Amino acid sequence: MELQAERHGDLLVVRVHEDRIDAAVAIQFKDRMREVLVDAPPRVMLDLAQVGFLDSSGLGAVVAVMKLLGPGKTLELAGLTPTVQKVFRLTRMDTVFTIHPAVPDALRDAV
Amino acid sequence: MLSDLADSRIVRLRFHSDPLAVREALQALFAARELDAVGSDDRGTAEIVLAEALNNVVEHAYARHRGEIEVTVRVAAGSLLCTISDHGMAMPGEAAPAGRLPGAPDQDDLPEGGFGWHLIRALSCDLAYRRLDGRNELTFRLLTGA
């Protein structure tokens, strides 16, 4: 599970360098995120642009990561590919997360 | 229904009840030439439904012991007819779950599971489950080219 984190002031951008967040890696994803999020700033943005597929186990892991952050901190999502977007929409989790079309260019260049 | 099966093409895969084997089976399935004509949106939908149904077999039917899973996809005009069979435990009440969402998302108490059957029900049609001689058989249709 390859994650890359970059801090921009009060924002931490975490890019997921994986094709899939599925049942085979959901626990691993959660565990790696737990490490990455130690001393996280109030805003965390998860860049999913490289993730072509996410199943309900992966969705559950993303929800668990949001809970790990705790009160007063937010997990935002960016770069949802079409199939991933479909899973969020059908489970209405798209109403729970702030979803950006992509990580803002100014930040992406630096990551 | 028989008429569209007459000219259908079939992909059949058999693998062990393990999450990585499910992933590999899905990758092999969608790389199969028989599915070449299926568009990317339909592929995404099919992969969601098949992944959920297959992971359910791994997690529930084979919760106590591992076993084999067989998936068959018949490529017909306008749809994919899928059959998943295994020799694991029967579904509770020998019926497929209704797949209701685990409640309206509530920021303070978000569910981390229970989405699988909702996705299967939302994206498939003609779903049927039966228990036959110690075997589970789940069939459903995925519409394509809509």
How would you characterize the overall build of this protein?
The complex is a heterodimer of chains A (about 110) and B (about 150). By secondary structure, chain A is an alpha/beta fold. Chain A is built from four helices and seven strands, in the order βββαββαβαβα. Chain A has one domain: Transcription Regulator spoIIAA. Helices cover about 35% and strands about 25% of the residues of chain A. In chain A, strand 1 (about 5-10) and strand 2 (about 10-15) form a beta hairpin. With about 150 residues, chain B is α+β, with helices and mostly antiparallel strands.
Key words describing this protein structure:
heterodimer; A: 111 residues; alpha/beta; Transcription Regulator spoIIAA; 5-stranded mixed sheet; two-stranded parallel sheet; B: 146 residues; alpha+beta; Heat Shock Protein 90; 5 strands; globular
SSE blueprint and pairings:
The complex is a heterodimer of chains A (111) and B (146).
Chain A: E1 3-8, E2 11-16, E3 20-21, H1 26-36, E4 43-47, E5 53-54, H2 56-69, E6 74-78, H3 82-90, E7 98-100, H4 105-108
Parallel strand pairs in A: 2-4, 3-5, 4-6, 6-7
Antiparallel strand pairs in A: 1-2
Helix pairs in contact in A: 1-2
Chain B: H1 2-6, E1 9-16, H2 19-31, H3 40-61, E2 68-76, E3 79-86, H4 116-123, E4 125-132, E5 135-143
Antiparallel strand pairs in B: 1-2, 2-3, 3-5, 4-5
In short:
Chain A is α/β, with parallel strands linked by helices.
Specify the number of helices of chain B: 4
The N- and C-terminal alpha carbons of chain A lie at a distance of 18 Å
Estimated helix fraction of chain A: 25-40%
CA(first)-CA(last) distance of chain B: 18 Å
List the secondary-structure elements of chain B in sequence, H or E.
Answer: HEHHEEHEE
What profile does the largest beta sheet of chain A have?
A: 5 strands, mixed
Count of discrete alpha- or pi-helical segments spanning 4 or more residues of chain A: 4
Q: In CATH's first tier, which class of chain B applies?
A: Alpha Beta
Share in helix of chain B: 25-40%
In the CATH hierarchy, the architecture of chain B is 2-Layer Sandwich
Q: What's the arrangement of strands in the largest beta sheet of chain B?
A: 1-2-3-5-4
At CATH level 2, the architecture of chain A is: 2-Layer Sandwich
**Which of globular, elongated, flat, extended, rod-shaped describes the shape of chain B?**
globular
* The CATH class of chain A: Alpha Beta
Number of strands of chain B: 5
CATH topology description of chain A: Transcription Regulator spoIIAA
Most extensive interface between two protein chains, with residue counts: A-B, 25 and 29 residues
Question: Major sheet of chain B: size, sense and barrel closure?
Answer: 5 strands, antiparallel
Rounded to the nearest angstrom, the radius of gyration of chain A is 13 Å
